[in-house]
TrEMBL record:
Name of the gene encoding the protein in the UniProt record: Fdxacb1
Protein name stated in the entry: phenylalanine--tRNA ligase
Chief location bin: mitochondrion
EC number(s) recorded for this UniProt protein: 6.1.1.20
Annotated GO CC locations: mitochondrial matrix
InterPro entries, per the entry: aa-tRNA-synth_II/BPL/LPL, BMT5-like, Fdx_antiC-bd, Fdx_antiC-bd_sf, SAM-dependent_MTases_sf
Family designation: Belongs to the class-II aminoacyl-tRNA synthetase family.
Alphabetized UniProt keyword annotations: Aminoacyl-tRNA synthetase, ATP-binding, Ligase, Mitochondrion, Nucleotide-binding, Protein biosynthesis, Transit peptide
Organism (species): Pomatorhinus ruficollis (streak-breasted scimitar babbler)
MF (Gene Ontology): ATP binding; phenylalanine-tRNA ligase activity; rRNA (uridine-N3-)-methyltransferase activity
Catalytic reaction list: tRNA(Phe) + L-phenylalanine + ATP = L-phenylalanyl-tRNA(Phe) + AMP + diphosphate + H(+)
GO biological process per UniProt: rRNA base methylation; translation
SUPFAM superfamilies for the chain: Anticodon-binding domain of PheRS, Class II aaRS and biotin synthetases, S-adenosyl-L-methionine-dependent methyltransferases
One Pfam family linked to the record: BMT5-like
Length: 611
C-alpha cells in the first residue's frame, strides 16, 4: 500500500494534526482558516506546528474549506482522508449558516478526495440530526448533515463516538471563535464516502428467443438496470445464487436433480389467464420481428399460460394474439415440461431465472425477482409424503443457512392456502392469480416473527395429471429469502451497482448485511389530482409510473385523502410520496426534480388533472 494522504481542515491549535503526524505511511497536510500570524497566537499552536514540520508534515494557512481546489494543484489533490473537526461559521452563527458552510465544504471535497477516500466530520452531540445523536434534536433545529452531504454526492457510511480523551495532546478550541473548547461530551464522528453516480436510464434494446427466432424489444425503463444482470450465473457471488445453489445441493441429496435455467425465453405471447392486466409488463417487439404463427405453434410454452388453452387456437387455425409480455412466472415453462412428459418420475426438475411483475411500492414488493421452480413427478397416492419430503428438505436447508448467517433459528411454517389470512404480501397475492395453491411456505425471524411468504406449493391441475403420476411443484422467491437471511431491509439493495454490496459476500459466503449508507435522508411530497370522469383509478399503474419517473427512488406511497365533490360526483385523490435511496446519495434538489417530473408524467400517462 502506498503513502496515505491526510488533509486536516479548520485546525485551531493544530493539536489534533500533531497527534496524527507520527502515523506510519501517512503524509499529513494540516491547515487552518487563519493566517500564520493569527494561528500561532493560539495556546500551544506554535509547539504543534513545530512538531508537524519536524515530522515532515505540511502546514498551510489561510485555507478556505469551501474552495479546496484553489489551494492544491491537481497533482497534490487525491486525499485519502479529510478531517474537519467541529466546523463552525464562528461567533453566534445559527444552524442555517452552518448547514450552508457544510454544503459548500462537501461540494469542495468532491475536487480533492480520492475515489475510495473518506471524509470525517466531528460534531457536537445533537448537531448532526441523525438517530445516532442522543438525545436527538428536532430535524429543523439540526445541521441535517446527511442531507447536506447527499447534495454533494456523499453518503454516511459510519458514525461513532468522538473520543477526545484518547487523542494524545489534543485540546479542542474555537468555540464561537474564541480560545475555548466545544462541549465534546457525546460528540460524534461522521464518516462519509462517495456515492455511486445516479443511473442514466438510456433506452435499452434486448435480444431474446421467441418462436424459434431471435427478436429484440425495448426494455421497460424501470427494468433497464435489472435486465441481464447475471446474478445466477456460475461466476456470480450474489446471495440469490448462493441460496439457489444451497437449495439445489440439499435437494440433490434426497433425489436426482436436473437444472434448467439458461434456455428459458424472457417473452411470452397472448395474455396470462386470470392475471390482472395491470400486473404485466407488456412489450412491443421491434418492427418486423414478430414470429410467424407456424413458429409459435412449435413452442406452445410461449403462449399457453396458466391454464389458457391458446395453443388449441393455433391447432384450429385461429390467429395467435399479437401481444407480448415479460414472463411473470416460470410456471408455464414447468407446465410445458409436464405436458411433454419431458421428465423422469422421481427426478427433480429445477428451473430458475428472473421474473417480472408490476406491483405497488413497498420495501418487500419487487418488480423483478429470481424464482426457483422445483417440479417432481411421483406415483399417485405418494404425493403427500413426497410433498412433505420436499418441504422438510427446504426447511433443513433454510435452518442451516439462517443459523450460519445469524446464529438464530428461523421459524418456518407451512400454511394451507384455504386457511391462509387475507394479509398476503405481493408475492403471495400474485401467485394466487396464477392458479390453485395447496400451501404457502412462510419464514419468520426475530424482526418479523409472524413470517413472510417466500414460496408456494402446488400440484398440477387436472388437465396435466395422468392416471399413474401426480406432479408436485414448489416456487421459491430467492430475493425475499436473501433479504430475510442476510437482514436486508430494502429489495432495491439486491440490485445496487455499488461494489460495497457484493464485497460483503466473498466467494458466495452468506453474511448479515451491513448498510454502507446510514440514515439516508427522505423527502416527502404530497400530490393531489382529479380523476378522469367515469374511469377507475389503476393504483398499480400509478406506482409503476412513480418507479419510472424517480428511477426507483420512491420508497413509499400512501393514500391521504379520497374526496368526492358534491353535486358533480368528481373524485379527487391525494397521495403522500416519499423519496429515499437505500444505496446512493439523494439530495433535496434532485428529489424535488423527480417530484416535478412525476407530476408531469401523471398528467400525460394517466390523464389526471393536478390540483
Amino acid at each position: 500500500m502506498g503513502l496515505r494522504r491526510v488533509l486536516l481542515l479548520g485546525e485551531g491549535n493544530f493539536s489534533f494534526s500533531a497527534a496524527l503526524c507520527g502515523a506510519q505511511d501517512t503524509h499529513v497536510v494540516a491547515t487552518c482558516y487563519e493566517s500564520e500570524e493569527e494561528a500561532v497566537g493560539a495556546a500551544g499552536a506554535a509547539r504543534s506546528i513545530r512538531r508537524l514540520r519536524d515530522s515532515g508534515a505540511e502546514v498551510v494557512f489561510s485555507v478556505d474549506c469551501t474552495k479546496l481546489e484553489e489551494h492544491f494543484l491537481p497533482g497534490e489533490r487525491e486525499f485519502d482522508r479529510i478531517y474537519f473537526n467541529f466546523p463552525h461559521c464562528g461567533r453566534k452563527a445559527g444552524v442555517v449558516k452552518n448547514r450552508q458552510l457544510l454544503a459548500r465544504f462537501f461540494h469542495s471535497c468532491t475536487e480533492v478526495l480520492a475515489q475510495e477516500g473518506e471524509i470525517h466530520v466531528a460534531l457536537c452531540n445533537g448537531q448532526g440530526g441523525t438517530p445516532a445523536d442522543q438525545p436527538r434534536r428536532e430535524w429543523h433545529n439540526s445541521w441535517q448533515i446527511v442531507a447536506v452531504a447527499a447534495g454533494a454526492g456523499f453518503i454516511l457510511s459510519h458514525v461513532h463516538p468522538f473520543k477526545a480523551e484518547t487523542i494524545e495532546g489534543y485540546k479542542c478550541t474555537g468555540y464561537r471563535s474564541q480560545d475555548k473548547s466545544f462541549c465534546v461530551e457525546g460528540a460524534l464522528n461522521h464518516v462519509f464516502t462517495r456515492s455511486t453516480a445516479p443511473l442514466c436510464f438510456t433506452p435499452l434494446s434486448c435480444k431474446t428467443q421467441l418462436g424459434g427466432q431471435k427478436v429484440s424489444f425495448q426494455v421497460p425503463q424501470v427494468l433497464v438496470d435489472k435486465i441481464n444482470r447475471g446474478f445466477l450465473e456460475e461466476n456470480s457471488s450474489h446471495p440469490v445464487r448462493t441460496i439457489k445453489e444451497k437449495f439445489s445441493a440439499g435437494l440433490s441429496q434426497a433425489l436426482p436433480l436436473h437444472n434448467t435455467s439458461s434456455c428459458l425465453p424472457l417473452l411470452h405471447q397472448g395474455h396470462p389467464h386470470g392475471v390482472c392486466h395491470s400486473n404485466i409488463f407488456w412489450i412491443t417487439l421491434s418492427p418486423g420481428e414478430a414470429p410467424s404463427t407456424e413458429k409459435m405453434s412449435q413452442n406452445p410454452v410461449l403462449f399457453s399460460h396458466f391454464g389458457q388453452d391458446t395453443d388449441k387456437n393455433v391447432q384450429e387455425g385461429c390467429p395467435v394474439p399479437q401481444q407480448f409480455y415479460l414472463r411473470p412466472s416460470l410456471l408455464p415453462h414447468a407446465q410445458a415440461i409436464i405436458k411433454k412428459r419431458a421428465f423422469s418420475p422421481g427426478t427433480l426438475q429445477v428451473l430458475s431465472g428472473p421474473v417480472f411483475r408490476k406491483c405497488r411500492i413497498t420495501p418487500h414488493s419487487m418488480p423483478v425477482f429470481h424464482e426457483m421452480f422445483i417440479v417432481l413427478a411421483v406415483s399417485r397416492g405418494t404425493e403427500s409424503s413426497c410433498m412433505q419430503m420436499l418441504v422438510d428438505n427446504i426447511k433443513t436447508t433454510l435452518n442451516s443457512l439462517h443459523q450460519g448467517v445469524s446464529g438464530v433459528k428461523p421459524t418456518i411454517s407451512l400454511q394451507e392456502a384455504a386457511s391462509f389470512g387475507t394479509e398476503l404480501n405481493d408475492f403471495a397475492a400474485f401467485e394466487r392469480q396464477l392458479g390453485e395453491i395447496q400451501h404457502f411456505l412462510c419464514v419468520g425471524t426475530e424482526a418479523d416473527p409472524s413470517g413472510s411468504c417466500v414460496g408456494v406449493i402446488r400440484t398440477a391441475p387436472d388437465e396435466l395429471k395422468s392416471h399413474e403420476l401426480v406432479v408436485v411443484s414448489v416456487s421459491l422467491n430467492l430475493d425475499l429469502l436473501a433479504m430475510l437471511l442476510c437482514g436486508i431491509s430494502d429489495w432495491r439493495m439486491l440490485w445496487t451497482s455499488d461494489r460495497r454490496f457484493l464485497r460483503q459476500f466473498p466467494e458466495g459466503e452468506l453474511r448479515l448485511f451491513k448498510n454502507f449508507s446510514l440514515y439516508p435522508p427522505s423527502y416527502v411530497h404530497d400530490v393531489s389530482f382529479w380523476l378522469p370522469d367515469g374511469e377507475e383509478f389503476d393504483e398499480v399503474a400509478f406506482h409503476t409510473l412513480a418507479r419510472r419517473a424517480s428511477g426507483e427512488m420512491v420508497v413509499s406511497i400512501q393514500l391521504r385523502d379520497n374526496f368526492q365533490q358534491p353535486g358533480t360526483g368528481r373524485r379527487s385523490l391525494c397521495y403522500r410520496v416519499t423519496f429515499q435511496s437505500c444505496d446512493r446519495a439523494l439530495g433535496s434538489r434532485e428529489a424535488a426534480e423527480m417530484q416535478l417530473h412525476f407530476r408531469e408524467e401523471m398528467q400525460q400517462q394517466l390523464g389526471v388533472t393536478l390540483r
